[in-house]
């Protein structure tokens, strides 16, 4: 299904529909956990930036790359910081997300953070500007 150029995988569609059983079913049937949409965003990126921590954990357990980047160079940590998702940020950091990864504009997750709570979490984890 393509909506105005957006082409999600079935796994991404399940994440966007908040369908945890669908995500589980797709993962069990061998869906590529690291496949991205036409912007390079993976199911993990979508789950993290929409604050679905249960799905973030499930996707990481299934082998999702916490440091994968979209076409703009944004990892899940940056988009989670931008979307003010402290729990997603914590889970990503606990699972090896690079706190100082820079996107194509040279910005880190700390520079993308739009809440003081998220900024503090990133700073405490060694985040730099």
How many beta-strand runs? 0
Topology as H/E string? HHHHHHHH
Q: Runs with pLDDT <50, length 5+?
A: none
Provide the β-strand percentage band.
under 5%
Radius of gyration: 14 Å
Q: Which class best fits the helix and strand makeup?
A: mainly alpha
Percent helix, as a range, is: 40-55%
Overall body shape:
globular
CATH superfamily: Ankyrin repeat-containing domain
Which CATH class applies here?
A: Mainly Alpha
- Domain count: the total is 1
Sum up the structure in keywords:
129 residues, mainly alpha, Serine Threonine Protein Phosphatase 5, Tetratricopeptide repeat
Walkthrough of the structure:
- The chain is mostly helical.
- It has a single domain (10-124), classed as Ankyrin repeat-containing domain (Serine Threonine Protein Phosphatase 5, Tetratricopeptide repeat).
- Helix content is 47%, strand content 0%.
- It is built from 8 helices and no strands.
- The protein has helices at residues 10-16, 20-28, 43-49, 53-61, 76-82, 86-94, 109-112, 116-124.
- The chain is globular.
Q: Layout of helices and strands, plus pairs?
A:
Elements: H1 10-16, H2 20-28, H3 43-49, H4 53-61, H5 76-82, H6 86-94, H7 109-112, H8 116-124
Question: What's the quick description here?
Answer:
This protein has 129 residues and is mostly helical.
